[in-house]
Amino acid sequence: MLSTVRFSGLVLGTALSASITVQAQDYLPILQYHHVSASSPASTSVTPEQFMEHMDYLKSSGFQVVDLRSALDDLKANKPLPDKAVAISFDDAYQSIYQAGFPILKERNFPFTVFINTEPVERNSSSFLTWAQMKEMQANGGVFANHTVNHPYMLRKESGESDGDWLARMEKEVDTVEALLVKHLGHSPKMLAYPYGESDRQIRTMMKEKDIIAFGQQSGVVSADSDFENLPRFPAAGSYANLSTLKTKLDAKPMPLLSEKTGGDYATDQPVSIQLTFKEGKYRFKDLTCYVSGQGKATLDWVSDVEVVATADKPFGVGRGRINCTMPDESGQHYYWYSNVWIRSSPEQGYVSEKS
């Protein structure tokens, strides 16, 4: 595949007043699916008709569907991606991916990645993929990656479990799948999707030490500046399956941030806040909007020309809560996009301490 580089505003010598612009892309939106079925839970599903609509839109609109791991390697190395590059991913090894999703992908020659939890695969559950099906899909653009063995809440300890035993159990969840991928499919792409999107500093450090790229469930666009142990993806199922809103996400850019301060992975009984510091540039700061899940718009306090603090009005309830921020670019045709997730735990859930 040929890729080109953008040299925006490059002037060669003093005699040339024109600029040379060659299209390329230094960021990647990634779509996240689960079921492709009309009979599975609506919150994590697209119907086959919806999935075909999404894929047809990608093809007709000139999107270049790329292999996820290869594209991430290029971004990390500051190599350009094709213009309108996008990647497709699925979480969980559901049989509907093979039955309804794979034929659509194969017909369009679209590469895709499936993050598999191997326990139901190994016990031959009729609702999950078989290794033979995965081999067939692998021969037609499919890549299979790590979603742990048992799909646990990775930050929850079992009753009576020490912090050390918990971390060892999580390492086994990861290593077992890596070994099974190599055994049955010949290799591992060294990528993992956190079950429920949950991770903390210890888990992300484990991923970094194992040289595994990992994904959360916050929305956003990947760039070379992203945290490659906690990458964003755009959910494209359930309430997010509407094509008109999906178009906006496919055209999104990464928020041009120099730094962020989130206060950690866990929310408390106080409203969360996040401080964002922007890179130098010409941005439409007056149009920046941050939304708190279940609460509406966050309060924005600008502490300098390039620093803003977004604060929720109320504490989160138990579970996961988000702040999503968007801002139109200068052209008004794209949105910069950023999201952060916090966990509000309760004592009976057994979450590992943030300080441990």
UniProtKB/TrEMBL annotation:
The keyword Nucleotide-binding does not apply. This is Polysaccharide deacetylase family protein. Residues 84-286 form the NodB homology domain. Coiled coil: none annotated. GO terms for molecular function: hydrolase activity, acting on carbon-nitrogen (but not peptide) bonds. The lineage of its organism: Bacteria, Pseudomonadati, Pseudomonadota, Gammaproteobacteria, Oceanospirillales. Residues 1-24 form the signal peptide. GO terms for biological process: carbohydrate metabolic process. One of its GO terms (cellular component) is extracellular region. Keywords: Signal. It comes from the Bacteria. It is found in: Secreted.
